[in-house]
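Give me structure tokens for this 287-residue protein.
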Amino acid sequence: MPELPEVEALKDFLTQHLSGRRIVRVLPVAVSVLKTYDPPLAAVEGREVTAVHRYGKFLGLETDGGTHFVTHLARAGWLQWRDRLPDGPPRPGKGPLAMRVALETGEGFDLTEAGTQKRLAVYVVRDPREVPGIARLGPDPLAADFDEKAFAALLTSERRRLKGALRDQSLVAGVGNAYSDEILHAAKMSPYKVAASLTPEETARLYRALRSTLTEAVERSRGVAAGRLKAEKKGGLRVHGRTGEPCPVCGDTVREVSFSDSSLQYCPTCQTGGRPLADRRMSRLLK
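Here you go.
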């Protein structure tokens, strides 16, 4: 799933390629992708893109007509830029194409989604806060006013484990499965530790890891073409998606805990005092 650093990079990329350009056609291919009907999708056609914004993991195009084209790429979605769009309208089918946006210059982009779980979403709204997911967002962890004190206040009564708390978009916006693993590894904390149990020193360490991990990932992604961002993200991860590989900090083997629809990766030596975490799904399979 694209997370804050990749969506931030897409925002920068689209700012360079869309600002001041006019959208001439928006062509939906997958029926499920459009989540709003008023204003209609055609409300952004003929309009100039005046700004590109990021809201957590949401990406938004602001137009001179006062309407906003907002998308959430979900788990398997992506934005593919095309210097020259194919002639003729796209044909609905079983492929990954969900929507095409064409500019007056002949350039444009495709929104695509792999797999069978179609969760990619597009909204056309007058105000981005009309999108339910944006209205529920917590603070942006890279915002200038998001300091350690503000972070500590969020965790004071948070009874969930750190892994789940960091992924909650209403608590902190933009962090998903991959970067929550990376943040906890950088902070040397167990993903199972309860958020409210952190000492002031641990809270400060987690805050520093949150900011530095995301900032470094944004810097690595900055200037990277949209088509190469996925590979860049994977190459920069230390533990996420690296089960069985040596930890780059201590050399211990990176381990995994599996859930019904996701998994987490961690280093026992760096994060859990050398103790492997219980993998309940594997335990059930072995019985």
